[in-house]
Structures
1.
Amino acid sequence: MREDYGLGTLEKRFADIIWERAPFPMSELVKICEEEFSWKRTTTYTVLKKLSNRGLFENRNGTVEILMEKEEFYARQSEAYVKESFGGSLPGFLTAFTSRKKLSREEIDELKKIIESQS
């Protein structure tokens, strides 16, 4: 399994369909993708296989199943971004983020609660 947490626009829409409905029959996914994206059956199988190789989903005996929940995927995506762009420094990321966007009082309070719950 590759640790690639980027999704293209179509991959994201495809993943959202699965995250919203799974588990469900592969035949239903093929039908949905035909309607949503005008894909052929083989394209649906190819994209599912690509995301399966990345550890997101699985076609188990004709049933599409989730291997990694959406929240977990986006948490890992965020971690990978901070690691790659800020050397893993969350304070570095927050400094960069807040240099252009002032945090509201509510956001500051929420961040304080998150930090306090970690100790």
2.
Amino acid sequence: MGIFSAMKIGCDGLKVHGMRLDISSKNIANLDTPNYVRKIPLVVATDRSSFLSVMNQMKEEAFGSGTMPYSSGSVSFAGVVEDPTLGEKIYKPGHPDADKNGYIRTSNVDPLVEMTDAIMAQRAYEASLAIITISKSMADKAAAIGS
């Protein structure tokens, strides 16, 4: 894996985990909004190697060639899905969002789950930033060796 490949993996991680943070913040902001449905980000690993190539690389590693089986992967943002769990029904007949029976449905956002997701996304974002920083440092050292 080259330095630029590592930087691309870090950049992909920054984009995806930044989107995760945005979605978590929107969910937290709409915690008390009636009829709001929690959004769940879909993050997909984009490993460019097939199962057969991974098995072959693992076989080579076992017999001493020392290759790394997962050297070409990243993450991508695959969209957003809505949480299928329903919020609690509350009787508020004068509310503008009330149904014909006078009930509104509260948001299905759990603040503990959202805060945990936000912390995990923040740590993944920081890890992606560290990949870029380390790759930049390696490129600087390689340039210093060459001059």
3.
Amino acid sequence: MLQDLFLKVLRQGERFCSVHNARAWLFEVARNTLADRLRVARHTVELPDDLPSPVEETAVVDTLTGCLPRVLSELDTEDSDAITLCDLQGMAQADYARAKGLSLSSAKSRIQRARLRMKARMTVACRVQLDDAGHVLDFVPRAPV
């Protein structure tokens, strides 16, 4: 980088001699050169061979869907309906609000509360175990009642 700085000084030629504060100019050019170099640098990190694949991590969560019918049947109708329509069937929350005669904010609140109750019920019914980051580690599959 120091070499690049000196090359920039040499390219200035006679103009460098007319710079009012050469020291300040050198510091500014050095700072800009460093910024340019860091911007262009492409640092890579080798990944370990034993890194778990994302498919393995999501497999536990994907199999957890087997508990979903049981948990949905144990929720009250309003919660079950909100989750089924919005989360499972992909209905927009605005459409859900219109269908149920609610304001959009009321519908969003209802859906959020239903999700929280479903999570709590699923944690108990399927004995879901979470890690410190909140990711599913394990669960006990339960058949629908």
